[in-house]
Request: fold
Amino acid sequence: MLKVAVIGMGNIGNIHAPVYQADPLAELVAVCDILPERADRAAARYGVRAYYSVEEMLKQEQLDAVSICTAGVENGGDHFEPTMQCLEAGLHVLGEKPISNNIEQARQMVAKAEEKGVYYGINLNHRFVPPAARAKQWVEEGRLGDLLLINMTMWINNPNDTSPWFHIRALHPHSLDIMRYFCGDVVRVHAFFNRAPGRVCYSNVQVNLQFANGVVGHLTGSYDANPRHNLERCEVMGTKGRFVLNNLYEELTFYPRDSDELTVIRNSIMGGLSGFNATFTNRIHRWLEQITAGVPRDQIEASGRDGLAVQEIIEAAIRSFHSGCAEEVPVG
Ligand SMILES: NC(=O)c1ccc[n+]([C@@H]2O[C@H](COP(=O)([O-])OP(=O)(O)OC[C@H]3O[C@@H](n4cnc5c(N)ncnc54)[C@H](O)[C@@H]3O)[C@@H](O)[C@H]2O)c1
Reply:
């Protein structure tokens, strides 16, 4: 059983911690927050030790892995320091998304995990749902034929206006990860952004993407929508048919090119996903399973490298908006 701690006991740390507690592959032993009242409250809730600094926790505890649920500027500015401390200490790290809002720091964290030979994962939880796994299986089995097109939409309501690039840097690691999950690496992008009236944040974006395998894709993103109507939609088309994965895990439909008969898989009220937080349960369990099994480090699903790859696409999209041209995406 892996000894685990959670760092950053805000909203999301308090989703990770009970998931670890309930998972048979982990033992939650400590929580850490620089705000003592948050650390203490969480420690009391989960019956574990509280720390107010990562350094102190690493001195006192024999840990195998940590979740890093800090936030900061553009929801990623605070991840670097605790991540580097934990990687340096030889711990496996599951970081929250975005891997970082600062691309140079993201690159350094991935390099540090390589150097230390530890597992580094990112909580790109949207892909850890059964219908996405089924759709991926269809792609791999060739049910869609040769892949041609992908369309992705992800829109929520977030009035946070602390930075112009908050929306694309903080939200679209998720959508771009889904796109990469089905279609692989992205090599070029061309993006347009606008702001809803009165906003500082570029709260709407349209991105065209070219993938290394020739697939052409499109992403629509917004912070000015109501996710209760529909959070996201992914459509992938190949030479033999297409699928639509609607609203994260609600419904997966296959539309064959040569027939009018559809395959429809709905989230079942009997044993289906109970809600959005179940994506955390699934993602964290897979992370624990892969560490426990000792998989080769390059097989970690939604790895630090994957987290870096989507941030590279995001930075290229921002460059494209400034230059007015399609921009290359560095592929690591
Ligand atoms: N995967 C998802 O679906 C999903 C959804 C929402 C948010 N998130 C991500 O989760 C992360 C956390 O978001 P949140 O809303 O819980 O933020 P939050 O601000 O509520 O909590 C972050 C906590 O980290 C603590 N902290 C900061 N630096 C620290 C350090 N060095 N050591 C210990 N504690 C430290 C802060 O004091 C704070 O309590 C963000 O990166 C966000 O993007 C992920």
User: Anything to note?
Assistant: The longest strand covers residues 147-155. The mean pLDDT is 97.
